[in-house]
Amino acid sequence: MIELRNITKIYNKGKPNEVIALKDINMKIEEGKITVITGPSGCGKTTLLSIIGLILTPTYGDVIYNGENVTKYSDYWKTKFRRENIGFIFQHINLLPGYNALENILLPLYSMDLNPMDYIDKAMELLSRLKVLERAKHKVEQLSGGEQQRIAFVRALIKDPKYILADEPTVFVDEETSHIIHNIMEDLRDKGKTIIISTHDPELIKIADKVYRLYNGRLIT
Amino acid sequence: MIKKQKNIISYAFDCILRYKMRTMVILITFLIATTMISSVLFVKDGLEKEAEISIEAAPDLTIQFLRGGRLEPIPISYINEISKIEGVEKVVPRIWGYVGISNYVFTIIGIDTSNISPLENFGLESGRFIKEGDRGKIVVGKLLANLLNLKVGDNVIFLNEAIQAKKYQVIGIFSDQTSIYTADMIIMSIEDARDFFNIPNGYVSDLCVYINPRYRPSDIAVKMSTIPNLRVLDKDLLLRGYKVAYASRGGIFVTLWSIILVAVTLISLSQMIVVGQQSRFEVGLLKSFGFSTLDIIEVRLIESLVIGFFASSLGMILGYIYSLYLGAPGLIDILLGWYFLPREFKIPVFINWTTVFSIYSVTIFPLLIATVVPAWLNAITDPDIAMRRGIA
Q1: B385 contacts A56? CB cut-off 8 A
Q2: Which residue of B has its CA nearest to A155?
Q3: Model ipTM?
Q4: How far apart are CA B220 and CA B324, in angstroms?
Q5: Which among B295, B299, B369, B382 counts the fewest CB atoms within 10 Å?
Q6: Contact A79 B11 (CB under 8 A)
């Protein structure tokens, strides 16, 4: 169980350009379920996902993983936790330019004590499932937005993480691919993975076990 | 952990190839700087080494005569007085001075042929050394031989200060491989030198004192200092003097090149900033995947060490070639000062490991600072913030 208690995030705190991105968020995310966070653009979905994924520190409030308050834990601990447990699909896709699709997919494995080359078959299988196998050796710059998003999806799954955090995972893909992603998400849930998605996609909302709605940095349902 | 280390090293090498522009800018600028710095230091070290070799041939102590604080020929009667000092093994008179030939200045050394001269230890390219009874005969350095196209057996005429023409026969030529020390030398008998410089009988330029190895020259020098009007030059003092001279000339260059190095570092730094945005994003992304701050510093450290080490090593090789094979044009005249060296004369180049280490330090260290510090600053920022700043 992931629990958020009174999470508030203020950017540029105390400065004239101060922004309150999140205000007193409380939520419980059950393990092995699909949780969707939805709401209009700029409501704080990405910020909330980043806080859950421990890549952003809240200004106030606590993030609790399985009863353990990890908010104040060291950077080293959080990094190790992310390495071992979390796979991210970013809103801006965030593939590294200059590398090809396969190299980007294997990148998270370089921080682990394993041989990334042993995961090529798995990467190829996922790429095939998402219909971008032929793009494996293409540079990021040569891929369309939709193809990049599918690569980012494979990258998030390559280390078989316990938690998958997906920020608008279907925004750049066509209907068919979107459908494939839904199926993969459901498969992952069946395998006991915890999936947290920020999305506007009604199809993704349909497969969610729990939906939270954000508005103007506050949780409304 | 071994596999992880392999992954990090592999990623660091990928970065070197991926950031081609940054790698090239750093490589080229550091290459130029290290080439210049290393050539200056290698030649300076070579000259110091040369000075050491030359000093080997020098007497333990050199005695000069001062009148009113100025150098004057020393009466040979001092030989007896000095010989009596405990520890003095031998006192040999010497007459020396300079002669202008063409636009260059050469050193004439008149030696006492009844004693074996340490100069005999320097190799001759052809002919033989001066021996007892030789009059009107000279052994010349390679410089004069080249300048006047002299061979053994040739006759040569020098003009002294009184504009008197003096004729000598070349009986030997020093090898150009031996030492800069012999390059501008003209060796003749002390009698011929006395005649050339018009030094009165009973006087010489200085006295060469050889000390028994059981005694320390500096102790004997202290004893001699009690004799009025004498100046005692210690061999070690001469060596230190040479070293200071070369070091200060080298120092000017090193200072100049250090300024250039700072400029180079700034160029590298600005290049880092250009790719900084991308680098910031990359660091944030890597951290989100689970790369620790230490992993990221290690990646940047490896990158900088590889580029810095490669650039510095290549720079030193080029510096060596520039000095040894090209004759360090534009550099050697300043380092040698009063010396003239023909193109074919081999410049003394010596690789001192301390110098090599210093070059690596002054080139790699700024690069490490310029790369590792920004990476560390990004790595200790929340990955989300680092990525947003990188994208912005």
Answers
A1: yes
A2: B289
A3: 0.92
A4: 41
A5: B369
A6: no
